[in-house]
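Predict the holo structure. Ligand: inosinic acid.
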Amino acid sequence: MKKQLVFATNNKHKMEEVGDILGDNFQLLSLKEINCTENIPETAYTLEGNALLKARYVFQKYGYDCFADDTGLEVFALNNAPGVYSARYAGKSKDPKANMQKVLKELANKSDYSARFRTVIALIIQGKEYMFEGTVQGKLIREERGIAGFGYDPIFVPEGYTQTFAEMGTEIKNIISHRAEAVNKLKQFLL
Ligand code: IMP
């Protein structure tokens, strides 16, 4: 029998990507599918804190085994900013172009452009909490290249590659990405 698990998101693209990695052994339910329509607060100061907030909210209020993720871009020369604030770095509108411009502005007089994406997944099974992490190292570039993906993809070149995430396309990105690594660790644990 398939194991039922809530993924605390309503992002269709994420559901598909994560569902593909987890495979047929699991039946993933979105927040909508468990009738959770409220905005779950993401008020923590770390990726770990926010992932846990979301997973605990679902487990405590709805009683489902559940996992939640949170991701950030961590830029070495900016003391790991924007980090947990990646989505809203340039303001509430969560505009990816403005976010990229702000990071590049902050980096204007720095020489080290190394950065990484980091994903944290918090899992709650029968009340017990577990954490999984995935990272991809790389560097930022000053001009946007490519149209695939989302967020900071046009200015992020992963280590060992010459193309940005937005140039290489989601097929390769989804194999080498921070999210893929974290979800694969989750899968190994659950199987
Ligand atoms: P979330 O926790 O997955 O919603 O990610 C928070 C923010 O981090 C997003 O709004 C993006 O700005 C950024 N981000 C997360 N994952 C990626 C990625 O794979 N590529 C580029 N930006 C990302």
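Residues 70-73, 86-87, 99, 117, 149-153, 165, 177 surround inosinic acid (CB under 6 Å). The CA atoms of residues 72 and 83 lie 4 Å apart.
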